[in-house]
Write a structure and sequence with these properties.
Blueprint: E1 3-8, H1 15-23, E2 28-34, E3 43-45, E4 63-66, H2 75-96, E5 100-104, E6 115-118, H3 130-144, E7 148-151, E8 154-156, H4 163-174, E9 177-178, E10 184-185, E11 187-189, H5 190-202, E12 209-212, E13 219-220, H6 221-232, E14 240-241, H7 243-249, H8 254-263, E15 267-269, H9 272-275, H10 286-301
Parallel strand pairs: 1-2, 1-4, 2-3, 4-5, 5-7, 6-15, 7-12, 8-11, 9-14
Antiparallel strand pairs: 10-13
Helix pairs in contact: 1-5, 2-3
Length: 307
């Protein structure tokens, strides 16, 4: 199938995988929206915070995949990129006649858990941070235009500077690992996510609406912690505490409390309909995906140049 893709956030953790997966599709042409000066024939200059710069960026584009997101910073900055920027980009795509708009969002738009076996539409959108609120607003712009919204939860793999590094930081902050935590987490490796986004963008069976994108088997927190221990040699220093004790130790650190609030309760999102009839497999699961990324994580956590 011949298709021209325009990918935003194409140099980022997820966007780079989306662009790579799109390039592998026969007949596909990939363009990357960038605020910087053009760097090669793929680059299209444009800044989502400057609507006038987007004029013409979607000309001849069949599929817009929007991966550019601002995570953190003040409320005005995240609103400018995630909310107003997405609205301007979608308006330009609609004006140009782009036939498919896909937005890579996050399950964080649901807010605080627990979420156990939740399907799309079963719980309300209730974001708990400025980043999540503005990403929920971005979703609405895409959905109102008939686009497709994809919501992964935890994304891991080479290039991850949030999920696993954040978990290592938490255990070091607590000076302990966790015991007795039975929570389940929906996860997907970043390469599978990139392939799934492209497959969904091209699938005639996937029109507008919102989907969860995760491996069908949720990951027990005990398995996740064991994988981290294998990376850095027991970041908790050999001690183990239960969840209640961990919360007491984290009482003076809002960031640690935030991480514990996510880690220690279920965030398990289900969407069998997403993978059905999709030209993409959900992959081998966490154990195999994490093993492939282990070398990169070690280098990154040790601050080596190849990280």
């Amino acid at each position: 199938m011949t298709a021209t893709f325009l990918v935003t956030g194409g140099s980022g953790f997820v966007g780079s995988r989306v662009a790579a997966a799109a390039r592998l599709r026969p007949g596909a042409r990939v363009q990357l929206l960038s605020r910087r000066a053009p760097d090669g024939p793929e680059t299209v200059p444009g800044d989502v915070t400057d609507p006038s710069s987007l004029r013409g960026t979607c000309a001849g584009v069949d599929v817009l995949v929007h991966c550019a997101t601002r995570i953190g910073g003040d409320a005005e900055a995240v609103e400018a990129v995630n909310d107003h920027g997405t609205r301007a980009l979608v308006e330009e795509a609609v004006r140009a006649g782009v036939r498919r708009i896909v937005y890579v969002s996050t399950a964080a738009v649901y807010g605080r858990g627990p979420f156990r076996g939740v399907r799309p539409g079963e719980v309300p959108i209730a974001p708990a941070s400025a980043t999540s609120r503005t990403r929920a607003a971005a979703e609405r712009h895409v959905l109102d235009a008939g686009g497709l919204v994809l919501r992964p939860h935890l994304v891991y793999g080479e290039g991850d500077r949030w999920v696993v590094p954040g978990l290592v930081w938490l255990l070091r902050e607590l000076s302990a690992t966790l015991s007795g935590c039975a929570a389940l987490q929906s996860m997907i490796d970043v390469d599978t996510l990139g392939r799934a986004v492209v497959a969904a963008a091209l699938s005639p069976a996937h029109g507008g609406g919102a989907h969860h994108v995760a491996h069908p088997d949720p990951v027990p927190v005990t398995e996740l912690l064991a994988a981290v221990d294998g990376l850095v040699g027991d970041p908790g220093g050999g001690a183990a505490v239960d969840v209640a004790t961990a919360l007491e130790r984290a009482a003076g650190s809002p960031l640690a409390l935030h991480h514990l609030g996510m880690l220690t309760v279920d965030h398990w999102f289900v969407d069998d309909a997403f993978w059905k009839d999709l030209d993409c497999s959900p992959g081998e699961g966490f154990a195999a995906g994490f093993a492939r990324a282990a070398g990169w994580y070690r280098a990154h956590l040790q601050g080596r140049p190849d990280s």
